[in-house]
């Protein structure tokens, strides 16, 4: 297993020191801020999104678009985006035990992870794909013109 950390949040330096202290540098990549996450998501098994506040979690939507199952804290729009069984599991913010439990469950159950990956892509296509918005906008315009 290899862990890739994207972003440059306040815990990045502490994480780097902890990896060095445990001699785990070869097990993790701390990529910092990246503009295009697609290359990373193409190789990801899961997306872990432990935000304590995130009203519009673009990372979660990008993971769904790539068919990557999500483990995320239930903050902001995350529960609505993932829905019930829609490609992800949620945990309460700051509940590290539940977060670890969800991650370990998926890393040790490839069948469940694959099922959630398919649900992730399906949920994205059904609710968030650009064509879905285009069709909904067309319906609104047509209804407005008829009124």
Task: Note down, in words, how this protein is organized.
The protein has 147 residues and is of the alpha/beta class. The chain has a single domain (36-146), classed as Glycogen Phosphorylase B (Rossmann fold, 3-Layer(aba) Sandwich). The chain has seven helices and five strands. The protein has helices at 12-21, 38-41, 58-65, 78-82, 96-108, 110-127, 130-146, and strands spanning 3-6, 28-32, 47-49, 70-73, 88-91. The strands form two sheets. A three-stranded parallel sheet has the order 3-4-5, sandwiched between helices. The protein has a two-stranded parallel ribbon with strand order 1-2. The longest helix has 18 residues, at 110-127. 19% of the residues are buried.
